[in-house]
Amino acid sequence: MTTTTNPRAMTVAGWILTGLFAAFMVFDVGIKLIRHPMVEETSQALQIPPGSGFTIGVVEGLIVALYLVPRTALLGAVLIAALMGGTAAIQLINGNPWASHILFGPYLALFAWGGLWLRDPALRRLFPIRR
């Protein structure tokens, strides 16, 4: 059985997935940059030094910006994977549940990489899905 793919549909799906990821990250970065009290409470519960939320938000914002610019998207995706691995480690250290807390960052990284893979034909050639 032969299947054909529609490159335009894949690109559109990739940008939709990228948009969903970016919307969540913009929200996350935003609450850190405005120093929302919930950020400080959560940081304290995770034993992250007080006042770190703003700096983390700046770094996250720069990484997401790299990801959204087509020329630097691959670097951004690598850095997102690293960032989300760090979030998983923090959750693991604090003994939080796997599905809802520890794997949340890696889920986001999969969204980011999935969106990039769908919208970038060169990346699809580099990492093909084989039968």
Structural commentary:
With 131 residues, the protein is mainly alpha-helical. It has one domain (7-119). 77% of the residues lie in helices and 0% in strands. The chain has 7 helices and no strands. It has helices at residues 7-33, 37-45, 52-68, 73-93, 98-102, 104-119, 121-126. Helix 1 runs antiparallel to helix 3 and helix 1 runs antiparallel to helix 6. The longest helix has 27 residues, at 7-33. It is elongated. The protein starts with 6 loop residues before the first helix and ends in a 5-residue tail after the last helix. 22% of the residues are buried.
Number of domains: 1
The main pleated sheet reads as:
none
Number of H/I helices: 7
Average pLDDT: 94
Fraction of residues in H or I helices? over 70%
Principal-axis shape equals elongated
Between the first and last Cα atoms, what is the distance in angstroms? 11 Å
Classification by helices and strands: mainly alpha
Low-confidence stretches: none
Strand content: under 5%
Rg over CA atoms? 17 Å
**How many β-strand runs?**
0
Helix/strand order, N-terminal first: HHHHHHH
